[in-house]
Amino acid sequence: MDLTEKSSRQSLIPSFLYGSSSAKTFGLEQMLHASPSAAFNTNVEATGLVIPSPTEPSKKIEMYSPAFYAACTAGGIFSCGLTHMAVTPLDLVKCNMQIDPTKYKSISSGFGILFKEQGVRGFFKGWVPTLLGYSGQGACKFGFYEFFKKYYSDLAGPEFTAKYKTLIYLAGSASAEVIADVALCPFEAVKVRVQTQPGFARGLSDGLPKFVKSEGALGLYKGIVPLWGRQIPYTMMKFASFEAIVENIYKYAIPTPKDECSKSLQLGVSFAGGYVAGVFCAIVSHPADNLVSFLNNAKGATVGDAVKKIGVLGLFTRGLPLRIVMIGTLTGAQWGIYDAFKVFVGLPTTGGVTPPPAAAAAAGAASELAKV
């Protein structure tokens, strides 16, 4: 491989985003101070082509800047809104299995009953509140996760962040999900009522006024506590396990350093890490998911009513196999879409091998010297 080809390949992967070595810093400075015409001419002289090779954008998004958080928020909208809308048929069957297990005894029979009673269109009932609700949730979930992860890391300092990084991931994701569920809850309440009560409403436009008239405006947040109970553990598992899985994939399964891997490989790692994390998420959050479905379906119902009717074992098992398939696929696709969007705007994919403890200790020592 000649020098020109090597430089062209490296330009496709912003390696300086993953490291801080002097060599990478020097290369970045050269890129920032080099004129576009000079880079173009060099490429023409070397290859004889009139089309310039791919280069880094002249204006990059600065990490942890307002533009960075805006990009992460937009990526969250796409990743959560589109994926949840796509699995609406699975979600519909799952909710009905949770509410009426005597009628919807299995996944296959559930699809058969819905098709017989409502036709193909019935499988996408509730897709509008699903799209809007989870778009808002995704915006807050991913955007605030990146914010709180940085915020808590700054509070802890480099040495403690490297030592207790999993706690940083857990705290950041939990804080983000508290906010995200406030955006999701009203849409989730209407969605469940539309999906599980035939004849209640066609969708959000007529379902929302009916719900408010029946339950009151505050009734839209009747399920906020069970929703937190479902989503906060889910999100903590989703982000912390994803970060750990991706780090170990790059550390043990892929011999090439992350910054030298192709973008397609990095996105493949994101999807794989997300899928495995999604399986864990489904198991951890499933009891609360049953509670949310029950409370939003039955007027005036309480958590005690749900436990009495469903049973403790039922809370953990009813509809679980379908939810594992749904959430695993969903979470893998979300991380794939989110990181693909980040790559599209010039940001690195999420996760990877963390700096060695020695580097973190050196950074901490430098911080202490600066204070002195």
Could you describe the 3D structure shown?
- By secondary structure, the protein is mainly α.
- The protein is 75% helix and 0% strand.
- It is built from 15 helices and no strands.
- It has helices spanning 3-12, 22-33, 36-47, 66-86, 88-99, 107-118, 127-163, 165-196, 204-215, 224-253, 263-297, 303-310, 312-317, 320-344, 357-371.
- α8 packs across α11 and α11 (263-297) packs across α14.
- The longest helix has 37 residues, at 127-163.
- The protein is globular and about 55 Å long.
Helix fraction bin: over 70%
Q: In whole angstroms, how far apart are the ends?
A: 49 Å
Q: What gross morphology would you assign?
A: globular
What is the helix tally? 15
Low-pLDDT residue intervals, each spanning 5 or more residues: 3-58, 355-372
Structural class by sheet pairing and helices: mainly alpha
Beta percentage is under 5%
Radius of gyration: 24 Å
Major sheet? none
Rounded mean pLDDT score: 81
Order of helices and strands: HHHHHHHHHHHHHHH
The strand count comes to: 0
Q: What oligomeric state is this?
A: single chain
Short description:
The protein has 15 helices and no strands. With 372 residues, it is mainly alpha-helical. The longest helix has 37 residues.
Would you spell out the secondary-structure blueprint of this structure?
Blueprint: H1 3-12, H2 22-33, H3 36-47, H4 66-86, H5 88-99, H6 107-118, H7 127-163, H8 165-196, H9 204-215, H10 224-253, H11 263-297, H12 303-310, H13 312-317, H14 320-344, H15 357-371
